[in-house]
Design a protein that fits this description.
Oligomer: single chain
Helix content: 55-70%
Number of helices: 5
Number of domains: 1
Distance between the termini: 79 Å
Radius of gyration: 31 Å
Largest sheet: none
Order of helices and strands: HHHHH
Length: 143
């Protein structure tokens, strides 16, 4: 093997180890990564195999075939990430709506709303008729 093949094999194997050690994913995703990693190691070890596969696929060079497959893989990853982003956006919207509804309830209607919002909801007393807003209520100071 040539020196570049050792470097490429180490990069592919390191990427696979990092994926399996740090990222939690579904079994299907792990199988795909394992399959792609094994294919990458085989193509690094036997570069002529990429040329033969490219000829079977009607592509001029093995490197071109690898780039085309990588671009398809990148497009697939982008679609998966976009799908996940939309799912998280919908969940965040649902959560924000639920929090807004809890906060919109009057303070005396339910103690559950106060507990769900993280504590008792405190509202200042409403000003009396004829009393300017922000003035102290009768018999006390405003805090």
């Amino acid at each position: 093997m040539k020196p570049i093949q050792y470097l490429l094999a180490a990069l592919v194997a390191g990427g696979m180890l990092l994926y399996f050690a740090r990222l939690r994913s579904r079994l299907a995703d792990r199988a795909i990564v394992l399959l792609l990693g094994a294919a990458g190691l085989v193509l690094v070890a036997f570069p002529d195999l990429a040329n033969r596969l490219a000829a079977l696929a009607g592509v001029w060079r093995g490197a071109d075939l690898v780039v085309y497959i990588a671009l398809l893989g990148l497009a697939w990853v982008c679609l998966v990430l976009l799908s996940r982003l939309r799912e998280l956006d919908a969940r965040l919207t649902e959560l924000a709506r639920a929090m807004a509804l809890l906060a919109a309830q009057p303070p005396h209607s339910s103690s559950q709303a106060a507990d769900a919002a993280g504590g008792a909801m405190q509202y200042p007393p409403a000003p009396q008729a004829g009393q300017p807003e922000g003035a102290a209520p009768e018999g006390g100071t405003r805090s």
